[in-house]
Model the fold of this input.
Amino acid sequence: EDQVTQSPEALRLQEGESSSLNCSYTVSGLRGLFWYRQDPGKGPEFLFTLYSAGEEKEKERLKATLTKKESFLHITAPKPEDSATYLCAVVADRGSTLGRLYFGRGTQLTVWP
Amino acid sequence: DARVTQTPRHKVTEMGQEVTMRCQPILGHNTVFWYRQTMMQGLELLAYFRNRAPLDDSGMPKDRFSAEMPDATLATLKIQPSEPRDSAVYFCASGLAMENRPRLDYGYTFGSGTRLTVV
Done:
């Protein structure tokens, strides 16, 4: 069964304190891995798509990396406005025309001043 | 700024009543998903459409839930009869598939959700 596991469930950082969030996955035929950010009362907001091991993408203070079994979201010198829940999701079904997106439970990040 | 529009934003209803949630996908997107989010289960995929045709609704309780796309600009999710355990936030997301394959570069765009409370 395809699974996506995120850790930790919650993370509290002081402003400027860098850290990483983890997403491990077991899927048959990874087509792509997404990172999303979700603020309270809102829908998930797309951040990155990663396709293959070794790939990296950056956006402001965020950098996402991918290996064959997991992905990391590195947050460098976070600010309070980075506080949100970060969701990892995978699209499996390589070779098919489907594109179902399966989510992990997320990491709730709090950055305090 | 293209967005997915969901209505209503909030719905409180009594057990046994019919609930209809609506979604307007981004113009030009041909793939629509319905998800349900709860604290216990996180985001669960309920149904998935491409070019208005259902591709997968295996995550949806068939006895009370139904999902349709009457046209390319409207997706609906109905619950009849509603039960307290259906209380959750329901999200619609849309994306683009070309040559029948999903385009993943920009992810799927989510709406703001419908918060459903069944009492």
Summary: Chain B has one domain: 5-98. The domain at 5-98 of chain B is CATH 2.60.40.10 (Immunoglobulin-like). The interface with chain A takes residues 4, 31, 33, 35, 42-43, 45, 48, 55-56, 91, 93, 95, 97, 100-102, 104-113 of chain B (CB under 8 Å).
